Amino acid sequence: MAEKPSIDPLALREALSSFATGVTIVTTVDDDNAPIGMTASSFNSVSMDPPLILWSVTKSAHSAPIFKDADYFSVHVLGADQMTLSNRFARSGADKFEGLEFNRNEKNIPKLPGALTRFDCKTWSVYEGGDHWIIVGEVFEMEAKKGEGLVFSGGSYATAASIQPPSAMPQSEDGPIEDLLIYNLARSYTQLSQKFHASVESSGLTIPQWRILASLYDCHTRSYSDLVARTFVSPKKMNNLLLQMQGLGWLTLSGESGSGSITGTKAGHEMVADLFDLSAKQEDQALGDAGKAGQTKLIELLRKVIANTNVVD
Fold first, then answer.
1. 91 CB-near residues (< 8 Å, 6+ apart)
2. Is 290 part of a structural domain of the chain?
3. Element (H, E) at 2
4. Segments of the chain with pLDDT less than 70
5. How far apart are CA 46 and CA 52, in angstroms?
């Protein structure tokens, strides 16, 4: 018997992320006709005659049994301006339809507003595919409009814009602003964080939640004031956020609200472990040939900036 290949799941996920995919939201209803939906990039065409499409859902997903047994479902192909909607349906444990206006098709399946294309499907077949269910649907109705689609590639959102030939690329000239530290800090942060923050939100966390859990990584304990300074979350919002995250088992609170200490938990550590690895890879790509030595030097300089600009009341 041939040996089973040993593939690191994180490395496999990173490798697969190089294949850009469109972003969809799949909807159906449960036995009580309550709306169910989730974001999915595992969507593909299968056949033109009959008109078949497929998508897959991880078996561990809360709504997986509902989609597996559903008679009908709809696939919404999202536009480039629908990242917020994608993030809403990518999160787990919340009512994704709360406060959202939507209609239903003739089979009572939710129709989401603003999608570029919607495929209304009758379930054709369901196949077992490792840790996923592969769901094939026969399209019986569809709506489509022109527009730029939302794309997911390399762990972040993108768009499928046309590539201009080099001769058509606009040329820019340096100016005095390029010599300002504050400009270069702002621009590099914006460009680097845009990609990473999309990955954070796709994992189901908000940016403030990520910053808090990252600051408490390895079950670290920090004071309330230190956590506020590190995460840029206002004290008023911090109190509610910490109570919510304690309820989820991601951290523990001790002492009085607003002045006590906060300790990370194993569950909180596991929520951001993959994101730490992803962040390191994205930073390596951003630094290029500067390598680890360049990264260390840059961090040392930035820590000096932080220390010299820290305002102490």
1. 204
2. yes
3. none
4. 1-5, 9-10, 13-14, 16-19, 93, 153-156, 158-174, 311-313
5. 5
